[in-house]
Design goal:
The chain is of the alpha+beta class and 388 residues long. It folds into 3 domains: 140 residues, Alpha-Beta Plaits (2-Layer Sandwich), CATH 3.30.70.270; 50 residues, DNA polymerase, domain 1 (Orthogonal Bundle); 145 residues, 2-Layer Sandwich (Dna Ligase, domain 1). The chain is 44% helix and 19% strand. It contains 17 helices and 14 strands. Strands 5-6-1-7-8 form a 5-stranded mixed sheet.
Length: 388
């Protein structure tokens, strides 16, 4: 197995510089205008990062560091268009592309050497195609599993390629600074400091039982596997039990219709992935991150598996309304499905008891069109749902 993790460089800012030549070579900060008190930086160009500006920083602080920067609220429609162009290119190089955010994807390039050459040559061709056809740059990480590939893609940004040869996953992870361990957030980093962990080697020396006693059973096991260069379940969806998608907004959203429209797009992504893999699920969950970066989540188990995208949206929208605190700005909305199971004939009748078979067949047709013509980006519109 060989995977590529592709990460578009400073994506929102790069699109703005592409569309506005006068911005090129200048510090561009996407997320809000200096007067937007609650806004935070969504993406900063590499020119802006030289001033210390970074994602998730309050716009007010970014303005203090870089008062001569170009501040923009962003254009999600345009960013989605450019994202679709890039994902279509990825599909030219791999039969299996898993998009995990607007600017990231995994490509399974196992068995493609006869078409595109060895992994390093394939990576070079992908980068050339992205730059030549979209004007954007992408950083690539190559490894035998998705987790290590994800970390590798951040090792030589921007516009870099970093490859971990088979058998080198463990030495790579053991030498890695703990700050680079994907999945270890702010609180975990504080624990690393508390226990004197500086590199993966420090974690590697501890048995799984000790890690579980410090970090909890689940995360202790995660760290035990991570520093050994093993595949993380969160990226290995076919062996895992859940799938999710989320969208971070370039500025805080307060309008519930706009928020739910974003949720509708997420439902579309989830349902097409569910259909593509022949999975089903009866457990949904929602994730809401507010303007102060506090995060809430909720889940619900349904009496039968979700059968259509519209059903998924209606269920998630109801869960969102139940959980959302009106009047608070939202930075991120996410959703997912848990306890995934492979579809089987014993449950097909249950799946369509509600009379949704025609609608589900339409969604399968849209999926097949998009797989055959990746650039089509065919979707249902929310206005269609409103007429139902």
């Amino acid at each position: 197995m060989y995977y590529i993790h592709a990460d578009l460089d400073a994506f929102y800012a790069s699109v703005e510089q592409l569309d506005h030549p006068e911005y090129r070579g200048k510090p561009v900060i996407v997320g809000g205008l200096p007067g937007d008190r609650r806004s935070v930086v969504s993406t900063a160009s590499y020119e802006a990062r030289k001033y210390g500006v970074h994602s998730a920083m309050p716009i007010a602080r970014a303005w203090e560091l870089c008062p001569k920067g170009i501040y923009l609220r962003g254009n999600m429609k345009r960013y989605r268009e450019k994202s679709a162009e890039v994902m279509a290119i990825f599909s030219d190089f791999s039969p299996e592309v898993r998009q995990i955010s607007i600017d990231e994807a995994f490509l399974d390039i196992t068995g493609t050497a006869g078409l595109f050459g060895p992994p390093g040559e394939t990576a070079k061709k992908i980068k050339e195609a992205v730059r030549g056809r979209t004007g954007l740059t992408v950083s690539l990480g190559l490894a035998s599993n998705k987790y290590v590939a994800k970390i590798a893609s951040g090792m030589s940004k921007p516009d870099g390629t970093f490859m971990i040869a088979p058998g080198e996953e463990e030495p790579f992870m053991r030498s890695l600074p703990v700050s680079k361990i994907w999945g270890a957030g702010k609180k975990t980093q504080e624990q690393f400091k508390q226990y004197g962990f500086k590199t993966g080697e420090d974690i590697y020396r501890l048995p799984q039982e000790s890690l579980s006693s410090i970090f909890g059973k689940a995360f202790g096991l995660f760290l035990y596997r991570a520093v050994r260069g093993e595949a993380a379940q969160s990226f290995d969806e076919r062996r895992g039990h859940s799938m999710s998608a989320e969208q971070t907004f370039p500025y805080d959203l307060y309008d519930e219709f706009a928020i739910e429209t974003a949720l509708f797009d997420i439902c579309q992504t989830l349902m097409f992935r569910l259909l593509d893999c022949n999975w089903q699920s009866r457990t949904i969950f929602i994730k809401i991150r507010y303007d102060d970066f506090s995060t809430q989540s909720a889940q619900e188990s349904l009496p039968r598996p979700v059968s259509t995208m519209n059903e998924l949206f209606e269920r998630l929208a109801a869960l969102f309304r139940k959980k959302y605190q009106p009047g608070r700005g939202i930075r991120l909305i996410g959703a997912g499905l848990m306890n995934l199971e492979t579809e089987n004939s014993g449950r097909q009748a249950e799946l369509f008891d509600s009379g949704n078979e025609k609608e589900r067949n339409l969604e399968k047709y849209i999926l097949e069109i998009n797989k055959k013509f990746p650039g089509a980006a065919l979707k249902k519109g929310r206005s269609w749902l409103a007429d139902k």
